[in-house]
């Protein structure tokens, strides 16, 4: 973890966990791949670690009992919260400029980002979709959004 800590990005990722969402492991694994500063789990503390494939040992993970405590953390750390959800009024991720000091916030599979979470976000972005489904898997959406942040802010000379 110390090696990754020496080159982490100021990107934080949060996911709401109200129904033991299986996507949390995927989000943790992807956050590790992009050297995100931390993954924040909002709601239930327990989550299925299998999807993380042991990367949770190398990734900072924080728990917040509710959205209000996540928002307090973000304010203290100078992070802008960006919700990721395909709702009316959202900004297309493909054209959005993500803040460098950013906390990307994802909802769980199905209901998406809660109203409480959307209310503390500085902006909400959506991922363009063209098929018959209304949404993509939350773990996949997290990977796309984190990669967008990487493209906009990371020093790519330090990549593998």
Low-pLDDT regions: none
CATH-defined architecture: 3-Layer(aba) Sandwich
End-to-end distance, in Å?
17 Å
Mind telling me the CATH superfamily name?
Answer: SPOUT methyltransferase, trefoil knot domain
Mean pLDDT across the residues is 89
What's the helical proportion of residues?
A: 25-40%
Q: Order the strands across the largest sheet as they lie in space.
A: 3-2-1-6-4-7-5
What is the fold named in CATH at topology level?
A: Alpha/beta knot
Largest sheet: 7 strands, parallel
Enumerate how many helices there are, as a single number: 5
CATH class: Alpha Beta
**Overall 3D form:** globular
- How many domains make up the coordinates? 1
Order of helices and strands: HEHEEHEEEHEH
Radius of gyration: 14 Å
Strand elements, count: 7
Indicate the proportion of strand residues. Answer: 15-25%
* Computed structural class: alpha/beta
Organism: Rhodococcoides trifolii
Protein name: RNA methyltransferase
Pfam families: SpoU_methylase
GO biological process, one term: RNA processing
Molecular structure report:
The model has no long low-confidence stretch (mean pLDDT 89). A seven-stranded parallel beta sheet has the order 3-2-1-6-4-7-5, with helices on both faces. The two termini are 17 Å apart. It is α/β, with parallel strands linked by helices and 160 residues long. The chain contains five helices and seven strands. It has a single domain, classed as Alpha/beta knot, CATH 3.40.1280.10.
């Amino acid at each position: 973890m110390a090696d990754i800590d020496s080159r982490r990005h100021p990107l934080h990722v949060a996911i709401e966990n109200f129904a033991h969402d299986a996507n949390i492991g995927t989000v943790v694994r992807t956050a590790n791949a992009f050297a995100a500063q931390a993954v924040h789990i909002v709601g239930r503390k327990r989550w299925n670690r299998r999807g993380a494939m042991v990367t949770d040992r190398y990734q900072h993970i924080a728990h917040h009992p509710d959205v209000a405590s996540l928002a307090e953390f973000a304010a203290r750390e100078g992070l802008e919260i960006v919700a990721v959800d395909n709702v009316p009024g959202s900004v297309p991720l493909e054209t959005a400029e993500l803040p460098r000091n950013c906390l990307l916030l994802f909802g769980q599979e199905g209901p998406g980002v809660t109203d409480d979470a959307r209310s503390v976000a500085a902006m909400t972005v959506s991922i363009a979709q063209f098929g018959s489904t209304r949404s993509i898997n939350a773990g996949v959406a997290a990977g796309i959004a984190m990669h967008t942040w990487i493209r906009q802010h990371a020093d790519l000379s330090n990549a593998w």
